[in-house]
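Dear Dr. L.,

I hope this message finds you well. Following up on our conversation about the binding site, I have prepared a predicted three-dimensional model of the protein together with xanthosine-5'-monophosphate. For your records, I am including the exact sequence and ligand specification that went into the calculation, followed by the structure tokens. Please feel free to forward this to your student if that is useful.
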Amino acid sequence: MSVRGGIVVLDFGSQYTQLIARRIREMEVFSALLPCTAPVEEVRKLAPRGLILSGGPNSVYDPASPKCDPQVLHLGVPVLGICYGMQWMAHTLGGKVQRAERREYGRADLKILGGSALLDGLPKELKIWNSHGDHVVAVPDGFRICGRTENAVAAIEDDSRKLFAVEFHPEVRHTDRGEDILRNFVFGICEARANWSRSAFIAETVEAVRHRVGDARALCALSGGVDSAVAAVLVQRAIGDRLTNVFVDTGLLRQNEFRDTLALLRDRLGLVVIGVNAAARFLAQLQGISDPEEKRRRIGREFIAVFAEEARSLGEIPFLVQGTLYPDVIESVSVKGPSQTIKTHHNVGGLPSVMPFQLIEPLRDLFKDEVRQIGRELGLPKEMLTKHPFPGPGLAVRLLGEITEERLATLRAADAIVVEEIHRAGLYGKTWQAFAVLLPVCSVGVMGDERHYGFTVAVRVVESEDAMTADWSRLPGDVLERMSTRIVNEVRDVTRVVYDISSKPPSTIEWE
Ligand code: XMP
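The resulting structure of the complex is given below.
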């Protein structure tokens, strides 16, 4: 899938690599991400207007540090090195890189020395975001220093060879005018054309899926969320009713979710969907289990069992469609390059290891908001597009301690109130997720004239751009008050409501 003439990003393993590609797509310029180890031929095939070398966690002096073929610096197109990309470029071209005493992390002030095409049109001083260990202390021949921070050479360029590099991260929002720096590179220096759009993505994806699947059939596990629905609609456009979808009621979904979503998927999206009610099976598997990882394992295992039974009854189907997104990929495994693994709990790729499917993952390079935009372009209904993300293991990771039918009912009722009040306050579209968590903590309440020993509900409402970082929502007091009063009055056995004011990092969005 490619539009020639875009920007190729070579991944040296930074958590921010995909953000670079995303910022470029936001400029409607095609951008492809390749591992830094990709052969130069593969880069050439994409006929890029320019290259970006990403950051990475290593030092150029580590024996195991990732390396590019130095030929990428001589392809005749402009190159921008970011952070490790800068250090690798400087080191490779004969400059000097020094290990810093301590990592420079967070905000710093950039002083721009002028005359730089990359930093053109920017003020003389900018707040920038750093995350690096080494410094360039001597620039290679032909290079000029164009910007400094207090501690380091922060921007260099060789105008005649069109090589540019910055020590900081223009792709993160914390860098002031970072987008303008990338724009200067993409449009001013590389003269790329803005010819990549959502409709181009849809057309290319549909074509690629049609080509790959041929006359065969495909199966898709719908979760009820926007990702799998968008993936299914894209594949349906390519192969029509040769796509069969399965939507499993694990008994861990939210109030009325199975019924309402099934109707929406079938009636409004026209998908062929088999609805499987497996709630009792999941509950039986979870009986007596409190350990979060064990819950996830059992749910994953049961899901595979249910899904495999359905698949077998449908006959020979070689392809499996999954709505995997980029954050799922980097938080699970390092796939495209050396991007570092953060955690392994996400259930990406759980199915194929035990089933003989070839995977179709049309959204794997995208962030959630990009998927929502693609969904809008495909005509998905608003209630599906704006739906908050919901974890694969469902309410099981929001019900701490043992899962019982009774406690699930309590959580579902409290959760429905949280969501209803967020809608009523007009905040649903402005928040990333809003939900209730049932804690296995009892405390004393006074109800009527009686003392009552009941459970605690934590309300979690966060704002985020991509779930990789999140901040708790500063909800108005009256909204919090209505939630709290209603939960205590309307939900049996709950005597206390608390509001979670932790951000990610260091906390996570979910409690388990
Ligand atoms: P955390 O809790 O890691 O969540 O900050 C980040 C985002 O991922 C969702 N999430 C999951 N999604 N399977 C999923 O499909 C999971 O096991 C899982 N755990 C967390 C979470 O809701 C949030 O949007």
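In brief: Residues 404-499 form a domain with the GMP Synthetase; Chain A, domain 3 fold (CATH 3.30.300.10).

With kind regards,
A. P.
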